[in-house]
Amino acid sequence: MSSEAPAAAESRVSATEQVKAFIAGGFGGVCAVLVGHPFDLTKTRLQTAGPGVYKGAVDVVKKTVAKDGITGLYRGMVPPLLGVTPIFAMSFWAYDASKQLIYAVTPNRESQALSVPELAAAGFMSAVPTTLVTAPVERAKVLLQVQGQGGAEAKYKGVADVIKHLYREGGIRSIFRGTGATLARDGPGSAAYFATYEVTKKFLTPAGASPSELNLGAIIMAGGTAGVAMWSLAIPPDVIKSRIQSAPTGTYSGMLDCVRKTIAADGVRALWKGFGPAMARAFPANAATFLGVEASRKVLDGLF
Fold first, then answer.
1. Contacts of 225 (CB under 8 A, 6+ apart)
2. Which CATH class is domain 4-303?
């Protein structure tokens, strides 16, 4: 009985920590969307528009505002805002669970601190379950973001209308189109994201202080740097994901076909479309994400 008690207590602590990670991740995601959505819309429109539609990121913003007003920059925000809580909640929960898994499979480790490769592995693993939520949300978001560009008529009235049309068009498979490209983006991206955050935050923590303490400057800098690291890797697969998810059914037979046709039509540089807006968004949005995560985690630690 006594030998089982510590294990049971440890299990309860682990479960509690994972619940906190889930809630804090969701809160951080809301912060990310509120700060970063206009940048994301600009990126997506640059990635999916035909040649000559826009001269650059500033032109996207100018034309969007001229046509739809400032609120046009927040078109398509409902899908990520509705989906961001489970997406980020699952991402931070899965990252926490992946770290615990690494500890479990390395019982005789010399250091309790995870190495950079181990942090990256935990980050990569966190993307696998998260993709199941991310892919359909991204599919709806992209379709809402690109409609109306180039003078085209708006086809969808909102999120529910997008999902209804997609299901009628091709069932569940249509709703989840682009899942492979989403994982290709988020696997390496999450590996860089979490590892960079942990390493940068530790580096910026003053001597004698703990990285777990709420140091706003370190959190903002580390979170922003993590976002830049992630998007430095993620742009090419993100371009492919956006094109697959926004194209009419049958346009591409898969990721490789999309890569081949994109390069043939627009050159290799097309794989980096949207790099500017993505980089402009990366720092503030992800600084807001980790600030939201860390601040809410601090509150949760005080509650239970």
1. 196, 197, 200, 283
2. mainly alpha
